[in-house]
Amino acid sequence: MIRVTILALLAVLPVAAAAQRGDWPMPAKDYAATRYSDLSEITGANAGRLRPVWSFSTGVLGGHEGQPLVVDKTMYVVTPYPNVLYAFDLTREGYPLKWKYRPPVDPNALGIACCDAINRGAFYADGKIVYNLLDGHTVAVAAATGQELWKTRIADLSQGETTPVAPFVVKHRVIVGASGGEFGIHGWVKGLDLETGQIVWTAYNIGPDSEVLAKPGTFRPFYDRGAELALTSWPADVWKNGGAPVWGWMSYDPGLDLLYYGTGNPAPYNPEQRAGDNKWTASVLARRPEDGTLVWAYQFTPHDSWDYDAASEMILADLVVDGRPRKVLVHFDKNGFAYTMDRASGEVLVAEPFVDVNWARRVDVATGRPVVDSTKLTGASRGNVKNVCPTLEGGKSPASPAAYSPRTGLFYLATNNMCMDYQATRATRIAGTPFIGATTPYHAGRGGHLGAFIAWDASTGKTVWRTTERFPVWSGALVTAGDIAFYGTLDGWFKAADARTGKVLWRFKVGSGVVANPITYTGPDGKQYIAVYAGIGGDWLLLSGDVRSDDPADVRPPADFMPDIARHTSQGGIVWIFAL
Amino acid sequence: MDLRPLVPALVLSVGCGGHEAAPATTQLAARVFAGGVAPPAGAAPALANPFRGDRQSAAEGERTFGAMNCDGCHGGGAVGWVGPSLRDGRWRYGGSESEIFQSIYYGQPHGMPAYGGLLPPGAIWKVVTYLQSLEPPASVPTQSWK
């Protein structure tokens, strides 16, 4: 009798499924942010036979950044604003929807988001899909039913905060941050309770130690000494609107119990309005996820004068550096340098340019500081500073995360080959409006091509191979145990390359430029599948000229540095699945 | 004294003053206010541009366009950025001087903040004068490639 009751209960209550080996439960697949899968059905011998098996229009135009999740035979897709959440049943013919979740989202967010109304995806934990709405809310939805479990306001649109970042869940903490480096926000991360959505802690990235959660005896940066570093490296009160948004990717080392994330640019772009290093903008911060305590921090670009956000992922790997096995994090910064760091201490072990760099000659690993070329320093009094490499799009965009294969020992990433002129002007902070103060036109770098997909050796700081692309490359990377690296291009090709040589083995035109991150998973039939979004946007909504056709009141001239991109792509929004 | 009954009459008198009829003002319940300041409640400002065609006012409006961070969304020279171009003769919310004024004063959905609490009507009219001084393209664009 009792047994029957329990069985009946089990039939009613959805049981939270644990992610399986062939699933893709979080943005970068694992806590180490590798975007590596040990699936190996697709290899160099058969990748040429990949074919599309399914596609779905999201019904939304604009930058489709981020990636789907796959857990328990279901694929979860978050769209750009208005942030629809789709759940596709992978066990049925044609993958019909199990449910879709349609939250209300404040359209005012569209004017506060700097660079298109993008979303970087969801996180699966404990039977919940957790993601951010653009208008400053985090939601948790039951993975089985689509029912909203909680919704928490985390950010304030009227202060210029929006929330396209993907949440990151460690145990019972949901870690979130806000964008707004172009709106003079006071950047932060918050820790929410996974069960209730309640905000448990808030840690600012700039300001007094009490708000940064830098506690005496606990906070030990490798290169800096003293207290109130994030206050004394700013003019009085300027830090209150100093930026340091959190819009990239997070990672976590369970052994060290450290959460890693990068911060964005200081505000405004005109550096003469904010003398000092401006800590901890353009930095990596290591915190305890439970209560937000800051353990160490390192600033990649002190007193950033070029909008070099450090929002790119921190990939955790075990590498041999100078003959010693090291637990490292590897970070490809917008500023053009790739950093290999000791992830326990924050010491820089290797810092070498992965694209052409001229704002600094090198990074001095003894002091941790870049050796800056003073002729490339910008500011309103310096006029138009010509030919700074790379551009503020980054040598690599934080929007396009790299992948790491423990099989090849290499990192795979999309890069941009562009330089900029930088004319700073004085900016005024008006809450809820842009706080920028620079005009920064781009031109192609050496060789004339605008992008490349490369393989990088982070032990030595050297490029192993490079495939040039005509346009900037803005997709994330995926690498598999079949030794195949996947990426997409701005003109709408999705490609499979040999991870050891870079040779492109297969490509398919997906209907719109790719600014998303490919994933791979095992289907219910046991086969290996690859999925990616098409949908040009993000910064490329602003920069590509006439790639939108949905608004007769918004017809743009071609971009001067890539006038024919609109010949190859327009906006779109398509989920693609490929298999052998 | 309650002035509210006078407001429709005021708007009506503007409409009869030889300018095109003023549309009803739109007050959205929720919006972003520039600087956190809401436009004053009550009387709608007069809807005829006192500076129409004045080059000095247009130049002042251009400076305001930069100083109030309009260029942060609409681009330097109003050529378009995350927000649409304001110099191509195409208008999502209407391109008459009164419509442009109201878009700035009250804001618009999809992200345009309300500046009516931050700028006096005269300064907004100068921004309108600047935008209307920009010459739209002579022809409908066609792109062709070889």
Radius of gyration of chain B, CA atoms, in whole angstroms: 16 Å
What's the total count of β strands of chain B? 0
Order of helices and strands of chain B: HHHHH
From the 3D structure, determine the CATH topology of the domain at 50-136 in chain B: Cytochrome Bc1 Complex, Chain D, domain 2
Q: Give the domain tally of chain A.
A: 1
CATH class of chain A: Mainly Beta
Count of runs of 4 or more consecutive helical residues of chain B: 5
What is the number of helices of chain A? 4
Structural class of chain A: mainly beta
- Tell me what portion of residues of chain A adopts beta-strand conformation: 35-45%
Rg over CA atoms of chain A: 22 Å
Mean pLDDT of chain A: 96
Distance between the termini of chain B: 71 Å
Largest sheet of chain A: 5 strands, mixed
Protein described:
The complex is a heterodimer of chains A (about 575) and B (about 150). Chain A is mainly beta and about 575 residues long. Chain A has one domain (about 20-580): Quinoprotein alcohol dehydrogenase-like superfamily (Methanol Dehydrogenase, Chain A, 8 Propeller). A 5-stranded mixed beta sheet of chain A has the order 1-33-34-35-36, with no helix packed on it. Chain A has a 4-stranded antiparallel beta sheet with strand order 2-39-38-37, with no helix packed on it. The longest helix of chain A has 11 residues, at about 1-10. Chain B is an all-alpha fold. Chain B has a domain at about 50-135: Cytochrome Bc1 Complex, Chain D, domain 2. Chain B has helices at about 5-15, 55-65, 70-75, 95-105, 120-135. In chain B, α2 (about 55-65) crosses α5 (about 120-135) and α4 crosses α5. The interface of A and B includes residues 116, 435, 439 and 551 of A.
